[in-house]
């Protein structure tokens, strides 16, 4: 069950804490091929099953950007925001792809709320994200995702760096 973060104060209350892990999601060849189609990323190591079997991993592996794109949907398993304005990804402070995700393996997200900085009605919050894979003892991705929360959608939000 996801943690409910109500308002900026609710988010601030969890600063420095691990929010939890998402459910597992399988990375199938169909998912890899659909991502390749959507992004025009047709690298053979991901989509050419016969050639990938002869490659360094013995089977196709997911595109790193596919694994990165799973952070947002998996985050919904970890936390839910309530009583805030707009919440958008502002940037990635740190991103490392640490290992391959083979076809037919599963991944899940482990999230820590690293920091919260506010300025007026706006707030930047940084999530330390680790993507785990069920066939690896170490994370396959580590990233610090910066979100910006602004006032209600009808107001203009300032995306400048909050210091």
Strand content: 35-45%
Radius of gyration: 18 Å
The assigned structural class equals alpha+beta
What is the rounded distance between the termini? 33 Å
Architecture per CATH nomenclature, i.e. the level-2 architecture: Roll
Helix content: 10-25%
Question: Kindly state the mean pLDDT as a whole number?
Answer: 92
Shape: elongated
Name of the CATH homologous superfamily: Hotdog Thioesterase
CATH class: Alpha Beta
Ranges where pLDDT stays below 50 over 5 or more residues in a row are none
Total number of strands? 8
Helix-strand topology string: EHEEHHHHHEEEEE
Q: How many domain modules?
A: 1
CATH topology: Thiol Ester Dehydrase, Chain A
Strand count, sense and closure of the main sheet?
6 strands, antiparallel
Question: What is the overall number of helices?
Answer: 6
